[in-house]
């Protein structure tokens, strides 16, 4: 017995294409499994008609004496034709082999390139940090933080108590004296 998924793998087609082929060759699409005889006598013949003889699903259905479901909508017909053409290409073993090998090759090259990048990340981060230091931006940030701390100290004389500051600095300042929105939280800016 053969499942739809096994048919998809065997013929290198999508499950939707398996379903449409089963319908066109007169096999019940609601079944979970099909016999070797059904596949050989109907499904394989239908796939050959679709791929080698360039027949469409309606022609295959007519060959097997099957009435296909009515899809008279023109956009749906164009969509079916596009999917059919994609299925024809997917069913070609040479095309499938090329696609699979190219995919594997590109994945391997990408993996190797990422390993090279990861190996150089510490150096790249160090060089970026050096640029920031040379630009003076870090000095400016620390100068503003120092000024803010000094202003804070002047406003609240030190009486021996300490203030716990979370790791990473002050995430926000609560301004209770704000006339527009009492108790509004604002991001602290250095």
Structure characterization notes:
The protein is mainly alpha-helical and 190 residues long. The chain has a domain at 2-91. Helix content is 64%, strand content 6%. The protein contains 7 helices and 4 strands, in the order βααβαααααββ. It has helices at residues 4-11, 15-24, 36-51, 57-64, 74-91, 93-135, 137-155, and strands spanning 2-3, 33-34, 172-175, 184-187. The strands form 2 sheets. Strands 1-2 form a two-stranded antiparallel sheet. Strands 3-4 form a two-stranded antiparallel sheet. A hairpin with an 8-residue loop joins strand 3 and strand 4 (184-187). Helix 1 (4-11) packs across helix 2 and helix 2 (15-24) packs parallel to helix 4. The radius of gyration is 34 Å and the shape is elongated. It starts with a strand and ends with a strand. The model has no long low-confidence stretch (mean pLDDT 76).
């Amino acid at each position: 017995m053969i499942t739809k998924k096994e048919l998809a793998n065997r013929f290198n087609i999508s499950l939707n294409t398996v379903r449409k082929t089963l319908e066109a060759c007169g096999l019940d699409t609601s079944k979970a499994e099909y016999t070797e005889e059904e596949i050989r006598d109907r499904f394989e013949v239908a796939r050959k008609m679709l791929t080698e003889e360039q027949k469409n699903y309606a022609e295959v259905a007519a060959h097997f004496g099957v009435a296909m479901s009515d899809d008279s909508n023109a956009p749906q017909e164009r969509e079916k034709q596009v999917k059919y053409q994609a299925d024809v290409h997917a069913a070609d073993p040479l095309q499938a082999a090329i696609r699979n090998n190219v995919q594997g090759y590109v994945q391997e090259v990408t993996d190797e390139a990422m390993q090279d990048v990861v190996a150089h990340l510490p150096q790249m981060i160090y060089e970026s940090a050096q640029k920031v230091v040379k630009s003076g931006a870090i000095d400016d940030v620390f100068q503003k933080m120092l000024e803010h701390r000094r202003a804070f100290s002047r406003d609240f004389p030190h009486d021996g108590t300490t203030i716990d500051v979370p790791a990473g600095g002050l995430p926000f300042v609560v301004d209770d004296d704000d006339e527009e929105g009492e108790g509004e939280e604002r991001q602290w800016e250095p």
